[in-house]
Write a structure and sequence with these properties.
With 369 residues, the chain is of the alpha/beta class. Bound molecules: 3-isopropylmalic acid and magnesium ion. Magnesium ion binds next to helix 9.
Length: 369
């Protein structure tokens, strides 16, 4: 089969890891007899320098016409001025909203070979396997009004956390469905003791739960959840939550695995045949490592490409419907780790340290075999 992939490397190590992701996709194509056509776009700081905006409308259109989007990372000190009206992050927010990618899947899995890379004790992190489902196109990230103004008593600013019943229903349906394919336990995270929007989430959860009696479901307040994630992370299966809570909790949870350099993500929208919030596969999705541009190590062949390589596996699974190929990539990553190869971020004594390109080559060699 033939697939069109939009490739948006972005800034910093985004460029370097993307090269490895593409290498792996090409190797998959060869082994399984598929062809991937790549369409490159400039986004983030690079696009601000070239075009004055982080995301051109043409780039968004190009992505919409593709089967999937592979995204690197955007940002860097050069474009960090919080007062600037154009910011690199506008690229990723524009893509999420513009492509209606409302369901952000962030699996946090502790590789048996990497239990020692975590700052937490082995007995806490061993066997952790959590799937975060973060609502991605609503909540405080996109609520209006969002503005700042001056009054006689000084400056004021407002952000808005808003959710509609429909937005909550569709993300919950995705979460329940994913839980059904796993350990059948769904945790809903909110701040229902304070926020009206969270109370609506709970009400809607009760309704959607009735359609899903085979999945056990519970609630956590976000502050308590952040504590339990470190105390007993193994107890979590699928966690669904509002946009900003999901942003914060997934950075925290990434540390269970030892390095942000290991974690992939998929942002999915409703497929062409999807109705009533049901995801149907394959569907258009955007795939990105959860790490940023790491300006401190950019351009030095030090970045860990495994997060984008594991994102490629998700791309194959969700947007191409190629389960076997996806599993082959994940197994290739496992094998390379089992053979003791490590990038600097997950390095430990007695292991063999390699750079970005070498790590990519190793994975490719396992995919080819
Ligand atoms: C993430 C990032 C983004 C977010 C930024 C870069 C806009 O932190 O994907 O988690 O806040 O969603
Ligand atoms: Mg984040």
């Amino acid at each position: 089969m033939r697939f069109n992939i939009a490739v948006l490397p972005g800034d910093g190590i985004g460029q370097e890891v993307m090269a490895e992701g593409i290498k792996v996709l090409k190797a998959v194509g060869q082994r399984f007899g598929h062809s991937f056509q790549f369409y490159f776009g400039v986004v983030g700081g690079a696009a601000i320098d070239q075009y004055g905006v982080a995301l051109l409308p043409e780039t968004l259109e190009m992505c919409r016409a593709c089967d999937a989007v592979l995204f690197g990372a955007v940002g860097g000190p050069k474009w960090d001025d919080p007062k600037a009206s154009v910011r690199p992050e506008q690229a990723i927010l524009g893509l999420r909203k513009g492509l209606n990618l409302f369901a952000n899947l962030r699996p946090v899995k502790v590789f048996p070979t990497l239990v020692n890379a975590s700052t937490l004790k082995r007995e806490i992190v061993e066997g952790v396997d959590i799937l975060f489902v973060r609502e991605l196109t609503g909540g405080i990230y996109f609520g209006r009004p969002q503005k700042r103004w001056s009054t006689t008593r000084g400056r004021r600013a407002v952000d808005t956390l808003a959710y509609s019943q429909g937005e909550i229903e569709r993300i919950l349906r995705v979460a329940f469905e994913l839980a059904r394919g796993r350990r059948r336990h769904l945790t809903v995270v909110d701040k229902a003791n304070i926020l009206e929007s969270s109370r609506l989430w709970r009400e809607v959860t009760e309704e959607v739960a009735r359609e899903n009696p085979d999945v056990e479901q519970d609630y956590f307040l976000v502050d308590a959840c952040s504590m339990h994630l470190l105390r007993r992370p193994r107890d979590f299966d699928v966690v669904v939550t509002e946009n900003m809570f999901g942003d914060i909790l997934t950075d925290e949870a990434s540390m269970l695995s030892g390095s942000m350099g290991m974690l992939p993500s998929a942002s999915l929208g409703q497929g062409k045949r999807g109705r009533g919030g049901r995801l149907t596969f394959p569907t258009l999705g955007l795939y990105e490592p959860i790490h940023g541009t790491a300006p401190d190590i950019a351009g030095q062949n030090k970045a860990n490409p495994l997060a984008i390589i594991l994102s490629v596996a998700l791309l194959l699974r969700f947007s191409c419907g190629l389960d076997e190929a996806a599993t082959a990539v994940e197994e290739a990553v496992n094998q390379v780790l089992e053979e003791d190869y490590r990038t600097g971020d997950i390095m430990s004594p007695e292991m063999k340290q390699v750079g970005t390109v070498e790590m990519g080559d190793l994975v490719v060699s396992k995919v080819q075999r």
